[in-house]
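REQUEST ID: PR-0412
SUBMITTED BY: lab tech R.K.
PRIORITY: routine
TASK: structure prediction, single protein chain
INPUT:
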Amino acid sequence: MNINKMKVAIVIALSTSLLSGCMGQMGASQMVTKGNLSAVDNRYGRAGLFVLLSPVYGNCIVG
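STATUS: complete
OUTPUT:
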C-alpha cells in the first residue's frame, strides 16, 4: 500500500511540473510556433496545422 501512495505522489508531481509552465516560454515550442505561424496565413489552416502538430508540441513540452 505504501508503494501505491508513492506512485500517486510521483504522478501528481510530474503532472504539476508539466502543466504549470507556459508553453510559449520554452525555446523548442517557440520554434514550432514560429514555424506554424509562418507556414499558413489563414487562421483556420493554422488551427488545423496546430492540431496536426499537437504531438510535436507535446514532445517539445516534455523535452
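NOTES: The longest helix spans residues 2-20.
REVIEWED BY: pending
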